[in-house]
Design a protein that fits this description.
Distance between the termini: 29 Å
Number of strands: 0
Strand content: under 5%
Largest sheet: none
Shape: globular
Length: 116
């Protein structure tokens, strides 16, 4: 990838990470919860999900983010929550997650944010 495109790609991914962090309500983490360290497979799947997101393949992106979020992947959890919040208005689709999933995902992102 040419250097200029690498900079743009890093900026897009940073923006997505910031959007993910902003999607989580404050104070949702409980004491003692640990953020999971992503595996190499999860990191690869997250990159592929970001590609789907950036390619406007919303259902595929959400499904991948939700699956990763259920595995404790905090950045994916934040983006899944972001997509849930935007839903029909932003994406023209209704994404679904149970209340328990939303709570787990919010906690994963909040714990991750406190750890830097």
């Amino acid at each position: 990838m040419p250097p200029r495109l690498e900079v743009v790609d890093r900026r897009r991914r940073r923006l997505l990470a910031l959007m993910a962090a902003a999607a989580v309500p404050a104070g949702t983490a409980t004491a003692g919860e640990a953020a999971a360290v992503p595996t190499a497979e999860q990191a690869r799947d997250f990159r592929l999900a970001l590609d789907d997101y950036e390619g406007n393949r919303w259902p595929e992106a959400y499904a991948a983010f939700a699956l990763l979020a259920d595995q404790g992947h905090a950045p994916a959890a934040g983006l899944a929550l972001h997509m849930l919040g935007g839903g029909v208005q932003r994406y023209g689709l209704r994404f679904e997650a149970s209340a328990a999933q939303r709570l787990r995902w919010s906690r994963a992102v909040a714990v991750s944010a406190t750890r830097g």
